[in-house]
Amino acid sequence: MITQGTFSFLPALSNEQILKQLKYCIDHGWAVNVEYTDDPHPRNTYWEMWGLPMFDLRDPAGILMEINACRKTHPETYIRVSAFDNTKGWESIRLSFIVNRPSVERQYRLERTEVASRQQRYAIR
Amino acid sequence: MSEPAAPVPESVDLDAERQGSGIDAVLDQLDTELVGLVPVKTRIREIASLLLIDRLRRKLELSAASPTLHMCFTGNPGTGKTTVAQRMADILHRLEYVRVGHVVSVTRDDLVGQYIGHTAPKTKEVIKKAMGGVLFIDEAYYLYRPENERDYGQESIEILLQVMENHRDDLVVILAGYKDRMDKFFQSNPGMRSRIAHHIDFPDYESQELLHIGKLMLAEQNYQFTSEAESVFAEYIERRRQQPHFANARSIRNALDRARFRQAGRLCQQGGQLSRQSLVTIEAQDIRSSRVFD
Ligand SMILES: Nc1ncnc2c1ncn2[C@@H]1O[C@H](COP(=O)(O)OP(=O)(O)OP(=O)(O)O)[C@@H](O)[C@H]1O
Ligand SMILES: [Mg+2]
């Protein structure tokens, strides 16, 4: 099972729990993105954006609406929510968590290659 | 181990619930701050009662689908539609029908795009901003332009219809506009008509009511009429309402803004020591010099 972002060692969040997290984000004034990918490799930081970042919302129901639309269109992908804080000094993602997984999860393993002088090169494949 | 559920009570205290919601304060404020509009106020009280009882029923676990509260406000300009929409949002919030209670006020241009693929994101963006509160669509009939087959307004209507059905708990839509045009709009858009539970008509104000509104507006801004000015203003109202572009309370507000200008001009010409009384007083001449008396 892919673990990345917050909460990914926990059982999948219910919609109700997702709404609470989203509320936390908008109450802090963070811009919320919905992103999806079929390549959740840890080195792949750029997932596809589902629509535009959402900000100036008063209530999280609209974001859940987008998550559900994304789930419907791309059910067999990983979908994550990320919240961007644009305040000076932060200017980065403050929270990110997975809200959808494909029915069959991607598998990765650590591969070792021996190169010159018995050095080991590692790769996740 | 989960806690045993508390037993469902056999009765509930209506008065306590009323007080807890603070709903009476809002309704009373509506009565005192808004002149006239008796049919509107009656409907709002009815809606408030429904929501209050609904809340009590839920406490006794008497389940029922939450009522549809999308509305349509029809009436001429300046009859108080926007103002009442604000109050409505406040009431819905206090009775926990909406979570936030803000009003997002839009017209066609905020919803409909200029080219293919532009409308859906625009409409959805507005809907997302309105969630938790009230989406107020002024002159809603402009969304529908039958003369142009490929008008993008229809796309916006479809999205709104879907949201009004599937997200009833997330937002309340209020359409507003002139009565006759709104009726025509509903004839061509039965889907919209069937999703709107409350049609509220805002009558034009009587001259007496307009005078009362004018006095309230003045008092709000720490001005007052002399008794002569008041009777001149009453005459002003009679004349003004015969003229084109009369917009009920909005015309009154504009007329008073101009009277303030003239008062300021008059006082500046007069110069010297000004009493508190002279600063708050609108004189008959401040009104009589209006073009309406030409
Ligand atoms: N019954 C009333 N009592 C006191 N003030 C009122 C009343 N009705 C309207 N007003 C005032 O008149 C002005 C215009 O009202 P409002 O904007 O609500 O009208 P409207 O019906 O939305 O007009 P439009 O159709 O032109 O948008 C506002 O400043 C409002 O405060
Ligand atoms: Mg208005």
CATH topology of chain A: Ribulose 1,5 Bisphosphate Carboxylase/Oxygenase
Cofactors, ions, other ligands: adenosine-5'-triphosphate, magnesium ion
Strand order of the largest sheet of chain A: 2-1-3-4
Helical fraction of chain A equals: 10-25%
> Roughly how many Å is the radius of gyration of chain B?
24 Å
Proportion of helical residues of chain B: 55-70%
Envelope shape of chain A: globular
The DSSP helix count of chain B reads 14
List keywords for this structure.
heterodimer, A: 125 residues, alpha+beta, Ribulose 1,5 Bisphosphate Carboxylase/Oxygenase, two-stranded antiparallel ribbon, 6 strands, B: 294 residues, alpha/beta, 5-stranded parallel beta sheet, two-stranded parallel ribbon, 14 helices, 7 strands, 55% helix, 10% strand, binds adenosine-5'-triphosphate, binds magnesium ion
Tell me about this structure.
The complex is a heterodimer of chains A (125) and B (294). By secondary structure, chain A is α+β, with helices and mostly antiparallel strands. Chain A is built from 2 helices and 6 strands, in the order αββαββββ. Chain A has a single domain, classed as Ribulose bisphosphate carboxylase, small subunit (Ribulose 1,5 Bisphosphate Carboxylase/Oxygenase, 2-Layer Sandwich), CATH 3.30.190.10. In chain A, the strands form 2 sheets. Chain A has a 4-stranded antiparallel β-sheet. In chain A, strands 5-6 form a two-stranded antiparallel ribbon. In chain A, β3 and β4 form a beta hairpin. The radius of gyration of chain A is 17 Å and the shape is globular. Chain B is of the alpha/beta class and 294 residues long. Chain B has 14 helices and 7 strands. In chain B, α2 packs antiparallel against α3 and α10 crosses α11. The longest helix of chain B is centred in the C-terminal third of the chain and has 23 residues. In chain B, 33% of the residues are buried. Chains A and B meet through α2 of A and α6 of B. Adenosine-5'-triphosphate (ATP) binds next to α4, α10 and α12 of chain B.
